[in-house]
UniProtKB/TrEMBL annotation:
Region (Disordered): 1-129, 351-372
Keywords: Coiled coil
Leader peptide range in chain numbering: none
PANTHER family according to UniProt: PROGRAMMED CELL DEATH PROTEIN 7
Nuclease listed as a keyword: no
UniProt keyword annotation of Coiled coil present: yes
Protein name (record): Programmed cell death protein 7
Biased composition regions of type Pro residues, renumbered to the chain: 16-48, 79-91, 106-126
Comp. bias regions, Polar residues: 360-372
Biased composition (Low complexity): 1-10
Xref: InterPro entries: Apoptosis_promoter, PDCD7
């Protein structure tokens, strides 16, 4: 006998559990819990629910569920994603005060994780404190981190009363000298007006306020602290002026040394330029002398060559004459030298008109010359 369910509720209870469908809109799965990032707790309901205030969303127990799950049916169920983590804590000191109804919290057990120094210390687990107390602690830490009181500014140190300035002392001394000069004139006038009582009383009435003003102006100058401070300031100014003068003298000496070095450099440059010009002129003169020597040497060599050529020609002529003389001697003819010694002395007298008389000897000599 098959078992028939008496009611559809029992049949739905025996149906095998179905896996939940994938998260809508491609939402990533919630992160795994870790000591650095503790799991988020249910948030308290607030008047501003929505995506713009995730830390004010209602807890999971108060969120509405799908009608199918609420009725126990087998419809599609989309689990509500967990709320996002709170924003990271800013780098500022938490508020050290305590509320009226809370006890002071103990100091944290130790430093936070080294890889995330901005995260505060993880609160104690929920089994030690209640969920409400733990949530209130988290809310208070977040509010103190975001809306905490700013650090107090450093107190401005109170400036001590500065001593008298040199300008003030100078003005006071000038005023005192002016009053002394006027009182000296009034004193002389009072001595001269001793006989006239009315004039003396008028001058005395003018001198009394000046004397009081002089006493008032001289009152600070009689104080040792006032005078000491003025002297210290004067000494400081004197030393400063001495330093400035010394620096001015040093700068002047440096400028003079720089000018001397510049003049020395200019002289060195001038000497170098003169040396370069002299070297160029010497090279040019050497080139000119070398060119002149080359020209003279070429002329000498040319004359030597001409002389050698003439000597060679004369030697050749002498050899040729000797050969012809030998040939003429072999033929029985008179030689030219003999002819010159015999014939030329006879023709030493020449007529003034330049004519030369014909003679058999000259004819024979001409024949001999033509034969030679």
């Amino acid at each position: 006998w098959p078992f028939r369910p008496s009611s559809p509720r029992v049949a739905r209870a025996r149906r095998p559990p179905q896996p939940p469908p994938p998260a809508p809109f491609g939402c990533p799965p919630p992160p795994l819990p870790s000591p650095a990032f503790p799991p988020p707790l249910p948030q308290r309901p607030g008047p501003f629910p929505g995506a713009s205030a995730p830390f004010l969303q209602p807890p999971l127990a108060l969120q509405t569920r799908a009608p199918a799950e609420a009725s126990g049916g087998g419809g599609a169920f989309y689990p509500v994603p967990p709320p996002p983590l709170p924003p990271p804590q800013p780098q500022c000191r938490p508020f050290s005060g305590t509320d009226a109804g809370e006890r002071p919290r103990p100091p944290p057990p130790g430093p936070g994780p080294p890889w995330s120094p901005r995260w505060p210390e993880a609160p104690p687990p929920s089994d030690v404190l209640g969920d409400a107390v733990l949530q209130r602690l988290r809310d208070r830490q977040w509010l103190e981190a975001v809306f905490g009181t700013p650090r107090r500014a450093c107190p401005v140190p109170q400036r001590t009363h500065a001593g008298p300035s040199l300008g003030e002392v100078r003005a006071r001394l000038r005023g005192v000298l002016r009053l002394v000069r006027r009182l000296r004139g009034l004193s002389q006038a009072l001595r001269e007006a001793e006989a006239d009582g009315a004039a003396w009383a008028l001058l005395h009435a003018q001198a009394a306020p000046l004397r009081a003003e002089l006493a008032e102006r001289l009152q600070p100058l009689t104080q040792a602290a006032y005078v000491g401070e003025a002297r210290r300031r004067l000494e400081r100014v004197r030393r400063r002026r001495l330093r400035l003068r010394e620096r001015a003298r040093e700068r002047e000496a440096e400028r003079e040394e720089e000018a001397a070095r510049a003049a020395e450099r200019e002289r060195e440059i001038d000497r170098w330029r003169v040396k370069c010009v002299q070297e160029v002129e010497e090279k040019k003169r050497e080139q000119e002398l070398k060119a002149a020597a080359d020209g003279v040497l070429s002329e000498v060599r040319k004359k030597q060559a001409d002389t050698k050529r003439m000597v060679d020609i004369l030697r050749a002529l002498e050899k040729l004459r000797k050969l012809r003389k030998d040939a003429a001697a072999r033929k029985g003819m008179i030689g030219i030298n003999t002819w010159c010694h015999l014939i030329i002395p006879k023709a030493t007298s020449f007529p003034k008109d330049g004519s030369f008389p014909r003679s058999p000897a000259t004819t024979s000599g001409r024949l001999l010359l033509s034969s030679i």
